[in-house]
Design goal:
The chain is mainly beta and 127 residues long. It contains 1 helix and 6 strands. Helices cover 8% and strands 54% of the residues.
Length: 127
C-alpha cells in the first residue's frame, strides 16, 4: 500500500498552472518538523516535501493557502525522472495529493467579507 499523511506548514505560496488539457495543477512545498536527540542535546530537523495537487482542489489551494499555512496532506508517493535545463537526468519524489485539509486560517482576500442578515423581528423567526 502506498499511502502518505503529512502535516506541516507551507514554505512558499502555492504555484498554480494548467496542463495542456486544461487541468489545474498546484505545487506546494510543505515542511515537517521533528525533534531528535543528538548525543545529549535535542536538535530540530526539518524535512521538505513536494506536493502536487490536481483539479478543483488545486485551485482552492492556490486561492486560500499562503506561505506559513498549516495543512494536512493525504496521498501517495511518486518518483519521476526528468531532464533538467542543463541536460542532466534527475529524479524527484513527490506526494500526489488525494486530499488537502486546510488547518489554519485562510489567507486574506481583497474581496469584502460576505454580508449576513439577521432577523430583527420576532415574526420573521420560522419556528
Amino acid at each position: 500500500m502506498n499511502r502518505v499523511i503529512i502535516t506541516g506548514n507551507l514554505g512558499a505560496d502555492p504555484t498554480l498552472r494548467q496542463t495542456a488539457g486544461g487541468t489545474a495543477v498546484a505545487n506546494l512545498s510543505v515542511a515537517t518538523n521533528e525533534r531528535v536527540k543528538s548525543g545529549t542535546e535535542w536538535v530540530d530537523h526539518t524535512e521538505w516535501h513536494n506536493i502536487v495537487v490536481f483539479g478543483g482542489q488545486a485551485t482552492s489551494c492556490a486561492k486560500f493557502l499562503a506561505k506559513g499555512s498549516k495543512v494536512a496532506v493525504e496521498g501517495k508517493l511518486r518518483t519521476r525522472a526528468f531532464t533538467d535545463r542543463n541536460g542532466q537526468e534527475r529524479k524527484s519524489t513527490e506526494v500526489l495529493a488525494d486530499r488537502v485539509e486546510f488547518m489554519s486560517k485562510a489567507k486574506s482576500s481583497s474581496a469584502p467579507p460576505p454580508t449576513t442578515s439577521t432577523a430583527n423581528n420576532m415574526d420573521e423567526i420560522p419556528f
